[in-house]
Amino acid sequence: MTVTPLQLAHAIGGIATGGVWTKPHLVRDQGPPQEAFKADVKMENVLRVIDGMWNVVNGGGTGARARLVGLDVCGKTGTAQLASNDVLKTSAGRHMKDNAWFVGFAPRSSPEIVVVALFESGEHGPVAAPIVRDVLKAYFDKKARSQAKQLASVPSFAPVTTVAKKSPEPPQSVVLELSGQGVQ
User: Fold this and answer.
1) How far apart are CA 87 and CA 116, in angstroms?
2) Are residue 59 and residue 18 in the same domain, yes or no?
3) Which of 11, 26, 49, 126 is the most exposed place for a label (fewest CB within 10 A)?
């Protein structure tokens, strides 16, 4: 079977989202979003696949090197044989090494990103897992920085109460500071 990394990302993205396939993209498109294709799938089967992919990474499977603390990563390792066993036994084939694959998505509960790594001559799928892990980490780190930057630009309110005279009454006014300017 022949499959490209983009085709694999598309297929796993559809599974990760419960049977909703959207057009793969590398950057945010400024045009209108294209409609997604919703397949008629049995969610029970989709959830079994997702659970299996979660276990590949987090349950002691071959994709453990893709694990990220604090993020539910799901994935699948694979190996792509370059030639038949007969060819591999020849002098030309002795130098051929299998390709390593890993496909992963995150987070498990609400997938945002699918990443595929094809490591040429990597021999075994687990060696491709850290590549996907690093891309996922970069994506979610950048997202966290962007959200922190947005939060930092939101004015903060610091409630300040006036000092009350020695009376049993509560303070008469409350001051909220917004960007250093008092508002009563």
Assistant:
1) 28
2) yes
3) 26
pLDDT, tens only, 133-146: 999 999 999 988 88
Global pTM reads 0.74
Mean per-residue pLDDT, 39-51: 91
Summarize the confidence of residues 52-65 as an average pLDDT.
93
Q: Is the pLDDT of residue 30 over 80?
A: no
Domain count within the chain: 2
Does the pLDDT value for residue 92 go beyond 80? no
| Domain span including residue 48 | 5-152
- Which of 131, 139, 83, 142 lies closest to 107, judged by CA? 139
DSSP structure string for 57-111 = HHSSSTTGGG-BTTB--EEEEEEE--S-HHHHTSTTGGG--PEEEEEEEE-SSS-
- CB neighbour list of residue 58: distance below 8 Å, 6 or more residues apart: 64, 67, 72, 73
Give the C-alpha separation, 140 to 127, whole Å: 22
Q: Which residue has the tokens 């990302």?
A: 9
- Cα–Cα distance for residue pair 98/119, rounded to 1 Å: 9
Closest CA to 52 of 76, 16, 30: 76
